[in-house]
Amino acid sequence: MIHITLPWPPSVNGYWRKWRGRMVISVEGRKYREAVIKHIWQQGMVKRYNCNLKVTIEAHRPDNRRRDLDNLLKSTLDSLQHADVFGDDNQIRDLRIYWSPEIGGMLKITIEEMQ
């Protein structure tokens, strides 16, 4: 089991951009991916999972504005995959995300191997 703290991600609406008729990851999305890699290395998380996973995300809003919880998933899971935490996000068999009552502008993530 590992615990990772990540910065607040861009929403799905800010993660993708249309360019030359196709959808690509935005500049904001690419910067977030690099920030995730940096945070993972700073926290000493270097293991790559090759099994089924349970992922729990505790979302700490940056402020009290209303947000859609599901908008946080795509950029976060794609960035963890890009950072080589796991090979593919289809390994996630159990996914839970919830709002923390605390403000903080971060995600606290727990990743566990499933038996």
Textual characterization of the structure:
The chain has 115 residues and is α+β, with helices and mostly antiparallel strands. 26% of the residues lie in helices and 33% in strands. It has three helices and six strands. The strands form two sheets. The protein has a four-stranded mixed sheet with strand order 1-6-4-5, covered by helices on one side. The protein has a two-stranded antiparallel ribbon with strand order 2-3. A hairpin with a 2-residue loop joins strand 2 and strand 3. Helix 2 crosses helix 3. The relative contact order is 0.30.
Please specify the SSE layout and strand pairing.
Layout: E1 2-7, H1 12-15, E2 16-19, E3 22-25, H2 27-42, E4 53-60, H3 73-82, E5 92-99, E6 106-113
Parallel strand pairs: 4-5
Antiparallel strand pairs: 1-6, 2-3, 4-6
Helix pairs in contact: 2-3
Strand order of the largest sheet: 1-6-4-5
Radius of gyration: 14 Å
Distance between the termini: 12 Å
Question: How would you classify the helix and strand content by structural class?
Answer: alpha+beta
Shape: globular
**Count of alpha and pi helical runs:** 3
Number of strands: 6
Poorly predicted runs are none
Question: How much helix is in the residues?
Answer: 25-40%
- Largest beta-sheet details: 4 strands, mixed
The mean pLDDT is 91
**In percent, how much strand structure appears in the residues?**
25-35%
N-to-C series of helices and strands: EHEEHEHEE
Question: Briefly, what is this?
Answer:
This protein has helices at residues 12-15, 27-42, 73-82; strands at residues 2-7, 16-19, 22-25, 53-60, 92-99, 106-113. By secondary structure, it is α+β, with helices and mostly antiparallel strands.
